[in-house]
Each structure stands twice: as C-alpha cells, then as structure tokens.
DNA sequence: AATGAATGAGTGTTCATTCAT
DNA sequence: CATGAATGAACACTCATTCAT
C-alpha cells in the first residue's frame, strides 16, 4: 500500500496481440542472448512495450520463456510441414534433406533457440515434454518415408550437424551430410 | 583492551592450487546451473575460498568461465585417451563406441558442460576455437580407425545422441546407436 | 466463425452490496496481513470482484482501508451492545467483564483490526477520531455501571490485556484479570 | 553473470559501526512509518549508506527489521534500569511510575516501536519471544517492589495507557493513572 | 456503470567488480 | 598477497492508479 501514485496514458487495446508480440520478442531475445540472459527488460524493449506489460501478461519470467519456447515449437511445426512437402514421397531423400538442413542453418536463430530449449530441458524436467516433442516432430516427418528406426537416427544426426555447425562455425559439408544420411536410411532396421 | 585479532591460521600458500580449485569449482557450477547462472559467489562457495579470491585469480567472470571450459576440454582429452585404449585397433568399433558413449552419458555433468560450451561458442567467436578443438579431439581418436570422413560423421552422430538424451530424458537405445554407427562407418567415403 | 462472446451472466446490480462486500473483504485482509500489506488486489480477490471494482467504489486504497476500519468500528458497536446486555446492572461486573474479554480474544481477528487501527491512528491524525471513538464506545458501556473514571481505567486495562495476549501468545489468566478489574472499579474516584 | 560493470570508490571501514548504524536507522524508520512500510531504501537513506550496504549486512529485510527490534529491546533494558533506579525501594511507587510512563510517552518513537513489535509478533510467532521478553522486562523491574502478580497487572495497565494515548492523541491524565496504579498495587494477590 | 488493460514507480534482492586494509 | 567490505546497476516482480472500452 504505497499510497497515491499517478500513472499516465493507456495505450493500444489488443491483449492477444500483445501476448503474441511479447512471446515473439522473447523468442528473439532467447535466440540472441540465451535463456539465461533473457530479462523482462530486454523483451519489453524488443517488443516495444512498457516493462509492466511483460509481467502483466506473463506473471513470471519462466512463463514468458515458456511461451517463447512454445512459440518456437509451433514455428518448427510450420517449418516441418514445409519439409514434408519438399520431401514428397521420399525420392532422393538424402539430397533433399541435406538441402533442407542447410537452409535451416541459414537462419541461426531458429537453431539456436532449439538448442537453448534442449539445454534448458536437460536441467528442467518441465521442459522435457517440449524438447521431446521437438524431436518427435522431426521423426514424424521422416518416419513415413524411411521407417521409424531410420527416422530416429536421421533426427539424431541432423541435430548433431546443426549443433557442431553452430558451435564451431565450420561450414557444413553437404556431400558428407548426404552420404551419412543415405547410410542411415539404408541401415534402417525396419521397425 | 583493544580488539585483539586472533592470528589466523596460516593461509595456504599455493596460488596454482587455488587457480585449479577455482577452475574446477567453476566447472561444477557450470554443469549444475549453466554458464548464464554461474556467479563468482557460487564458485567461491563451491571452492570454499573467499569471494575476493575469485577476482584475484580471474579478473573477470568471463576469465573464470573460460578457465573452467578449458579445464573441461583438458578432461575430455583424458577421457578420449581412455576411449582410444578401449577401441584398440578398431575391431567391433560400433559396439565398443556405443558402450563408451553410454558410459559418457552416465555422468551428465561432463556432457552438460560440453553443450554449455557449444552454445556459448555459438554466440562468442572467442570460444569457437575451443569448441572446434573439442570436436576435433573426438575426430582424432576415431580417424585412425575409420578414416577422417567417417570420423566426422561419427562425431556428429555421437553429439546428437548425447544432446537428445539429455534434453528429452529418453533412455538411449544401444542397439539403434550401434546400427547407426556401423552404417556411418561403412559409408566412409574414405577421405 | 468469429470469436463468439458468450453473453456473460447478467451482472449483479447492487452497488451498495458491492461496497459492503469490499469493505468487509478489506477488513478481513487487514486482520490477516495488516494495513501496511493490504492491497487492492488482495481485497478484490477476497471479495471475489474484479480488480477494477475496488477503485471504482473506493478511489484510493486509503479510502478502502478507511471503509474497512469504519466497518470494524460499527461491528464493535454491535459487540458492545451484547456486552451491555450481558453486564446488566453491574452485578458481578469484574467476573462478567473478564468473561467477555476472554471471549473477545477468542477471535483474534477483531482484536487485531483494533490494534491496526490504533497504530495507524498513532500516525495518521485523520484516524484519531475513529480510534478515540473506539475507546469511547467501551467507556460508554462501562460508565453507567462503574462511573466515568473507573470506566476509563477499565478500558485501558482491557486494551492492555488484549495487546499483551496477542503479542506474547501467553494465555490469559482470568483470575488475575478479575482481581485487577475489581481493584480498578473500587478505586473509582467517582467522577 | 551480467558482464563487466564498474563500481567506483570504496568508503569507510567500520563494519560493526555500519551494522549498528543500519539497525539504528531501521529503528527510526520503523518508528516513523511502521514495519510494513519500512524499506531497504528508506533505511539506507536514513543511515546515509548506499543501498547495497543494507543487504550486505542484512541479507533480507526481515533480518534488518529483526535487528532493529532487538535494538529497541536493548534500549528498553537501558531505559528500565533507569526506571529501577528511579523507583528505588518502592516508596511512592504509583506516583513515580506515573511520572516515568509520562516521560516515556514524551518520546513517541520508543512507544511506537514497541507497538509495532507487538503487532508484528501477533502475526509472526518468531517475534513472540522478543515481545514476551519486552513485557517481562517491565514486570521484572516491578516485581521486586510490588510482587509478581501486581507487576503483571501494572505492566498491562501501562501498555494500555501508552496505546490509548498514542492512538487517540488524548493527553494522559496523571492523576487517574496514579489512582489506577495504586489500586492495582494494593490488589496484589501476593504471589 | 463496470472492468480488464495498461503503466511506471518502487520493492527486495543479487552480483560483478573495485579497493582499502 | 589476499580478502572482506563496499557499491550501484540491474533484475524479477508488485502494485496503485488511470483509462479505454
């Protein structure tokens, strides 16, 4: 009860829009500086909303981060539908998949967010479900084309590719990737 | 009766020991809470040294984190010499390598630190060298046994396995891993 | 399929009822956490009304608190009429009064609110009138039975009993209280 | 780990003095605005120390408040030794005690702090011990002179006097107080 | 008339870093 | 040398209050 303080001005009215804008901004901040350095202030500034709005819509920072990660998860779904289209019936899968992963890596931001989620999930069991679903989405796109077993192996390899590329800055080697993917597809135990 | 200062028990005189203790403590803290939440205080407490010692030996937090990551890198070298011994001349490599990666994952701490480094390197070019060297160490153990190309592919796959395991909490499937590793070895383009 | 707004159940139209509900809720919150920690939000939640209603009916938090304290004052009047009935013509006054104060202390909430008011009044002259009236109400019940002077002394003692009981958690000692009350009655200078 | 920030200047060196200054400042702030409105910032300003010093010496606000209350408790001990001296062997006790309580009330601050403690203790069991000890100190000064039973009654009455005086702003009536005190002394059941 | 949205000042607390001792 | 003290910026979060709807 700290008495009598005067706010000024009330702005736009678009709650759902603000929620979305905040989650999107949080997503960008996470990609930029990582979950551990994501702050209300950084998100508010990015979203160009007043600081108070962040906690109005997301009571805790954890909530805000969670919303951002869920958004990234949703974005991944969109991306993966594109993959599914592009992979078609599985013809030339290794080559096409190689092309897709290379494109994916062109925008570091999405991949960085993915690994932020993975690392956070490694420490916070609440995030495991989300991380697992992330992996599952990739598997589900591939499974119809190469079988569940190969799909799992491919998902693993693709994550490894992305991670090492981001971490080392080494350019990806499409030929090597394609060779490896092909080998993993052929090795499918068939389950 | 002025305030008598009890002559404190003679301080340890072992600067190098302290440096090591601090770096080791920092390593543990990083594994526990991540680079982003690593603080001087947490490290000092872990190492059981006074707060001032942290900045005395490592002028900035960045220096301290870097020392911890370098230590982890060194530890990896030790671990990998064990791998080299264990893999011998490459007989049964997929199976043996599967066993080694499973053991590696038994201690989450080392793997977590690895991915902290990777993610940090993805954002800080200064750390890229270290991250690249991390990857290289693995390749160098495998290259003599399977060739440089396959070694690269195996290193990628192993990182993917570790990451997905930590992130999702899913148990590893040794059979699947072994199958995939075998396929990658066989696919070696030979370069 | 635009977002359909479910026609909300017709709102209560009972402004006076809401005012009362808010003041009552505020009274409870004050008893629970003290004036200093009473917030619009806590009151709104307690009263199960929207946040906006608190400031709609009571422009400032101070107003809301004042309303709650006035309500407590009114409640005291009700309680004291019961006292008057119970004390009858003053026969056995010390014993009966002891019984009444012990009952009063059975519900901590009322007594806590009283002392919140007292302490607030000690700092805010606007509340002095209310606090004085609180004391007066007690005196007025007792004065016809024991005279104005003794009534004042009894009111003082009763407040002391309540305060020390609440603060220390010590159980009250009815015999001691009765003895003291009797002495104060007998000492009445008669004015 | 929010990197690289530059403090400036380090000041006096007198840890014990600072602790004391902070506790004393907190005591004043509590007397002024109450425990519920006591803030780190207000205390820091009062003590003329930087904000960081408050949490350096008292990790939480609760600790700071507790230190202030303990200080007040200690102060009371000093005050009460003065009372003991002044009351001597108990001759003229009612009159002398009346004088002392009137003096006590001349400085509202001490009494306000007392009641802040009482009210806080009513809600926080941890503070009960301190509140009980406060009451006990008064009893212990009086018990040798009038017996334990009367001492308890006197302590109750004195608290009532102080409370009503502060809350209502009514001037104290020394004659009435003296009469009441005398009656309570005479009523001593002798235990 | 009634309320959810909005805001920014203010809170408790943490912490990297500097410095006197 | 080594370290406890010191500091102030920053943080997550709360809240009284105003206002558009």
From TrEMBL, chains A, B, C, D:
GO molecular function: DNA-binding transcription factor activity; transcription cis-regulatory region binding
Domain of life of the source: Bacteria
Keyword DNA repair: no
Residue stretches in coiled coil: none
Record Pfam families: TetR_C_31 (PF17940), TetR_N (PF00440)
InterPro entries, A to Z: Homeodomain-like_sf (IPR009057), HTH-type_TetR-like_transc_reg (IPR050109), HTH_TetR (IPR001647), Tet_transcr_reg_TetR-rel_C_sf (IPR036271), TetR_C_31 (IPR041583)
Annotated DNA-binding residue span(s): 39-58
Residue ranges of every copy of the HTH tetR-type domain listed in the record: 16-76
Keywords, comma-separated and alphabetical: DNA-binding
Annotated protein name in UniProt: TetR family transcriptional regulator
Natural source organism: Micromonospora craterilacus
């Amino acid at each position: 009860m700290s008495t009598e303080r005067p706010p000024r001005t009330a702005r736009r009215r678009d709650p759902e829009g603000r929620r979305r804008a905040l989650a999107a901004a949080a997503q960008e901040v996470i990609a930029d500086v990582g979950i551990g350095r994501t702050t209300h202030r950084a998100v508010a500034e990015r979203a160009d909303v007043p600081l108070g709005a962040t906690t109005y819509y997301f009571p805790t920072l954890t909530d805000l981060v969670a919303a951002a990660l869920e958004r990234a998860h949703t974005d991944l779904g969109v991306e993966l539908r594109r993959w599914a289209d592009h992979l078609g019936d599985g013809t030339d899968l290794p080559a096409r998949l190689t092309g897709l992963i290379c494109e994916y890596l062109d925008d570091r931001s999405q991949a960085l967010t993915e690994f932020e989620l993975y690392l956070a999930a490694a420490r916070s069991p609440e995030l495991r479900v989300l991380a697992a679903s992330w992996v599952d989405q990739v598997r589900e796109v591939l499974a119809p084309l190469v079988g569940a077993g190969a799909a799992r192996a491919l998902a693993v390899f693709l994550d490894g590719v992305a991670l090492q590329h981001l971490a080392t800055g080494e350019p990806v080697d499409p030929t090597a990737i394609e060779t490896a993917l092909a080998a993993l597809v052929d090795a499918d135990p068939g389950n």
